[in-house]
């Protein structure tokens, strides 16, 4: 679905943002793209949807170079940017004017999403609150029913019930045919939503891993004191939060926040452990 090899990109030649970046995203998954502020998440998504152009390397979507912005590709991908601007028309008018760009648009699904999000369907979009506008656009994005759906910080501006609703709707929208990518710096928002975690740090992808596999390989615990065998440890008010190798126990919950902190901090033992037995391209650690 998305194939990136050796991507080089920078807004200026002097300060490259990505160097030798590799990433493969497949159908049938919900990916969470994590990175610190300024790591380049939005920029990577823009490269994927053809709104920013690589300085070098390959960035293909649906088998075509993203930068070509071929009509057939654009009809099968939807990008929801972080900042949204809605026109001063009713939701119905917006759908009438825009849905035609997406051949698989599902009007019944849109009605369902808007009702679940409690977005007033008859209102003029600019008269809605920012959160309501965002929920309208999320509903529209899901209903567009494209093979690739890319959402940049979709949970920004959503209240707590809406975040839960968002997770539920995303889960129901996933099919074997679709690939959903969500970027965020709010790691907790992705818990119990994504199946694969992608971490962008230091100009490249440092992790692209299935959460189920991570749960089989790692355990996350809070203990009175960290030990030498721990792969990563972080002090907290309740003791030490540690990541350990899972030596044959049942896979538990992956603490995404702790894992993220470890990967963007100093965790050479964890890095070395995770890079064992991995394919040549990814996960890259
Ligand atoms: N149009 C632009 N021109 C020049 N520099 C840019 C432009 N857009 C982004 N940048 C810079 O590129 C870097 C990455 O920005 P980007 O918005 O991709 O990061 P991000 O990971 O999405 O951050 P955040 O979590 O804060 O949204 C930042 O240093 C930013 O200042």
UniProtKB/TrEMBL annotation:
ABC transporter domain segment(s): 2-227
Cited Gene3D superfamilies: P-loop containing nucleotide triphosphate hydrolases (3.40.50.300)
Pfam annotation, one family: ABC_tran
Classification via InterPro entries: AAA+_ATPase, ABC_transporter-like_ATP-bd, ABC_Transporter_VariousFunc, P-loop_NTPase
Keyword set, alphabetical order: ATP-binding, Nucleotide-binding, Transport
GO molecular function, one term: ATP binding
Name of this protein: ABC transporter ATP-binding protein
Lineage of the organism: Bacteria, Pseudomonadati, Bacteroidota, Cytophagia, Cytophagales
